[in-house]
Amino acid sequence: MSNGIPRSKSRARSLFSTAALVASVALVLTGCSGGLGGSTDGGASAGADGEPIKLGMIAPFSGSESAFGDYMKNGAQLAVDEINKAGGVNGSQLELLTEDGACDPTTAVSAANKLVTAGVKGSVGGYCSGATLPTLPVFNDAGVVMIIPAANSNQLPAQGLDNVFLINGTGTQQAAAAVKYAQKMGATKLAVVDDNTDYSKDLAVSFTQQSKDAGLDVVLTESVNAGEKDYSANVNNVVKAMPDFVYWTGYYQEGGLITRQLRDAGYAGTILVGDGSVDKKFAEIAGAGYTDNVFATFTQTPDMLKGAEAWVASYKDQFGDEPGPYSTQSYDAVRVMAEGFKQAGSTDTKAVIDALMAIDGFQLFSGPLKFTPEHTLSSGGFAILSISEDGTFKLEDDLQG
Amino acid sequence: MASLFGSRDRIDDLLTAPAPFVKRPEQNKGLLHPQRFMNMFGLIVFIAAMVLPFISATPYIISILTSALIYVMLAMGLNVVVGYAGLLDLGYVAFFAVGAYTSGILSTRLGWSVFETIPVVLLACVAAGIIIGGPTLRLRTDYLAIVTLGFGEIVRLTANNLAITGGPSGIHGIRTFSFFGWSFADGATLFGIDFNSKVLFYYFVLIVAGGLAVIGAARLGKGKLGRAWKSVRDDEDAAEAMGINTYRVKLSAYIIGAIWGGLAGVLMGSHLTAVSPTSFEFLYSALVLMAVVLGGMGSTPGVIIGALFISLAPELLRDFADWRYLIFGVLMVITMIFRPKGVWPANAMLPWLHRRSPMRSAAERDESDEAVVVTVPEPPEERRP
Amino acid sequence: MTQLIWNGLFVGSFYALVAIGYSMVYGIIKLLNFAHGDVYMLGSFTGFLLLGSVSGLLGTWSLPVLLLVLLLSMLFTGTIGVIIEKVAYRPLRSSPRLAVLITAVGMSFVLEYGIRQIFGPSPRVFPVRLAGDPIFFLDARITLPQIVLMVIAAALMYFLQRYVMKSREGRAMRSIALDTQASLLMGVNVNKVISRTFFIGSALAGAAGVMAGAYYGSIDFLMGFIIGLKAFTAAVIGGIGNLYGAMLGGLVLGLLESFGTNWLGGQWRDVFAFACLIAFLSFKPTGLLGERVSERM
């Protein structure tokens, strides 16, 4: 280390390599068109013959929520393939571009900008509300219609942007279903547990509010930290409050553990879980014998609908895995987007928005589609599911009667 | 007049330092003078960044460059704390959060313009710096590390739990900067070229972060305070013995770092139009620290390179999709193994200075002719930051 | 009350097992090994694979098989720990300490996303679950698996303590922690001892990983990150570099979390734990059992 000679070479090399890097970056950039001085209509002219219509999807592929990225991507890809096989939209094929949003605003915004630069005509992604919110203005500025399959914070429609559509039921709608079921079960003392993320907290707050309005007593609101394994301290709080109905609003990874630990700690009442927990893994994690008296609020699942076995089979066939949370919503998002393009006859932003608003009765997994003036689903279509022996969720109560 | 101590010449002889063993090469003149060269180099990079939007102004390029510049500002702030003052800070995004949230809350709830929130942000950051630094700066490195980590987590969780900070969804709808009724959102047309709001904001960030923040931090590091920081870093006890109030010097480094971080937070909030607690997880503190260490602690060009690498590498690796963090990790390990002091360390020498270095010429002579014995003075101990 | 204490001690014993590795490595080469939590994760995935391959034996021989798997996983993660040290830390031993910190974070990324590439991002479920009927002791619900796991943890810590304090190799470790240069001059093979330290620390983390997998049932590629942070905190509370400190710190952190959750609710738990840590360090800046060390970055 005391001899300066070998290092001096590498230092010189580093300087020159930096210079070379700068030069090569400059060369690459000059290759691109669309500089400030030049013509600024950089986006590809979509809809023309042979040119595919690009759909963008921002989903988490890295970080703690990355399990959901592939479910969404696969669901959307399935729809794109089906539509392309049937001849595409307006004579053009669809093409799905996915980018990692990592549930982080910075990453999501640059992903959105990347998609806009790539010339997408529609966005069918959006998983974490916190990371989806800052992408709204980016897509809005570029005139890209967004159909958001998963993120369902009440903040999203509250922005009042006319290019934003939500096809997942909002927290308010899901909480309404949960409260309705609690009343039906005759529960009086409710506890709600969330995982301190935006989606889960939003749902928990809605649930608490609506329970109070319905005259039910919420004895405890508890937050856990996502990503941990031991929730005995939180469970202890729940058990001590002695509720007869617990609503878990987070995801299945923690949901399974909490269900198991609740039962181990002697809680025997009803456990209801939110749509983020509806996954086959939930029962696996909770373990055999731990899923009695456990229910879920969820939009209709594929196996409740006619012809859905074929859908699940083709999903498995193509990706070698079971569909997961938000696979169906992502699949539907692409179909709704394609329907919008078809009805509008073009990919023009204004026309597509009008066409989407005019849709009435387009069949989704969650029921017939009709957008409200706030661009959310007119009915959430939430039903109550129970868990069968093999860990799959099945319809328990459609809450219609 | 003969003096008691002999002739005048003799006194001069006594007073002059002995001649060096190896003749010192002369200073470079003109553009090759190291300081001047680096200034020129920096100016060229700056101009290149100014020209860049004329070459490509896609929303994606502008967006990631704006983020990268904000990272440069963050890293320069952390460089003051870690690189100059030698305080290991694992919770630096706490200040980023304080700045972003203060400005976000004031601008969305009270309808202030983002520009007007800056004085309040400065106050908040100084307060945060004192609150965090005050009780903890007496601790040595690793205890300081965990305490700063703890503060970072406390700030994030508090933001996540409170209603005023928007809970887990955070704050959204932050407007861009506006000055006396004119806002970037209005756009501008100069010399027949349309500048949209994103490009204007990019230029603004370039001037504030790329220009003022970098030059400001670098000049602070060279001044009296900067030398005090470095002396505290190199030997705290010796610094104290030389009359430096080490506690106050460390606290000042902390506050400067807090201000840089907070202002970067204001810029980031305005850039993303939203702030959410997920942006302030421990991982991001680690990433900014990585920018500083990877580039070279205490070295301005190094830290800029590090920050650009940390912010742009995940973007450039996007095409590798699932593999990108794996590759990122491998790159980090490899870089550190081959350049343990960072890509461009603080005591890096420009290549032509090496060729003239007395050490090197002596060593070359050694190699070429074993018989000639040249007494080479011990090289100065390399500074260990 | 007793329930809270029991919960805290149980969680704390996991923290303690991981914290020991942190603390030992720190004591010897003054490195915050950020990849340590990921070795814990690696341990649970190794256990998952091994148990999957012997699933036929699980019905009757559950506990012995589990213990065997535990040992094998410890061997594996220990070896991985040694390799990590050789590849990522040893070349940088004479470099600034922060450089090694960066390679540690880099290794952590490599382990996390390497496992993600192999096993996928969604959680895996352990093939064997420890379950048992609760026993009531002073109003606290205690289950047999909890007791078994705590006994295993205590046994591992006991053997470690004997090894470090009584054996020749342990003395070499302590001498390096005290003064690397001097021990080198006294004929201690420093590289070998450091490798051994990494082996032991990683093996303990791996053991904790397998135990967590068997008890909680689900494992995922990011599970090491949080526990790594917690173990670091625990090691500092106890006085980093001090073996007993790490054990004590783990238990203290477990108790703090348990009581914090009870008093303030789950969302303020970490705030409470960190605030206690900061307040405590402000008064006793070297941790519970740590000695004043003067060192520089």
Description:
The complex is a heterotrimer of chains A (401), B (385) and C (297). By secondary structure, chain A is of the alpha/beta class. Chain A is 44% helix and 17% strand. Chain A has 14 helices and 14 strands. In chain A, the strands form three sheets. Chain A has a seven-stranded mixed sheet, sandwiched between helices. In chain A, strands 2-1-3-4-5 form a five-stranded parallel sheet, with helices on both faces. In chain A, strand 13 and strand 14 (393-397) form a beta hairpin. Chain A is globular, with a radius of gyration of 24 Å. A two-stranded antiparallel sheet of chain B has the order 1-6. In chain B, strands 2-3 form a two-stranded antiparallel sheet. Chain B starts with 7 loop residues before the first helix and ends in a 17-residue tail after the last helix. Chain C has a domain at 20-224. In chain C, the strands form two sheets. In chain C, strands 1-4 form a two-stranded antiparallel ribbon. In chain C, strands 2-3 form a two-stranded antiparallel ribbon. In chain C, helix 2 packs across helix 9. The radius of gyration of chain C is 19 Å and the shape is globular. The A-C interface holds A 1, 61-64, 66-67, 69-70, 196, 221-225, 227-230, 232-234, 236-237, 253, 256-257, 260, 264-266, 281, 284-285, 287, 324 and C 3-4, 7-8, 10-11, 14, 94, 113, 116, 120-123, 125, 129, 131, 134, 141, 143, 212, 216-218, 220, 222-223, 225-226, 257-258, 260-262, 265-267, 269-270.
Total number of domains of chain B? 1
Amount of beta strand of chain B? under 5%
| Oligomeric composition of the shown chains | heterotrimer
CATH topology type of chain B: ABC transporter involved in vitamin B12 uptake, BtuC
Mean pLDDT of chain C: 86
Mean pLDDT across the residues of chain B is 81
Order of helices and strands of chain C: HHHHEEEHHHHEHHH
Strand adjacency order, main sheet of chain C: 1-4
Task: State the helicity of chain C in percent bands.
Answer: over 70%
| Uncertain stretches of 5 or more adjacent residues of chain B | 368-385
CATH structural architecture of chain B: Orthogonal Bundle
Number of strands of chain C: 4
Discrete helix count of chain C: 11
| Beta-strand proportion of chain C | under 5%
Strand line-up across the major sheet of chain B? 1-6
Sheet of most strands of chain B = 2 strands, antiparallel
The number of distinct helices of chain B, counting runs of at least 4 residues, comes to 15
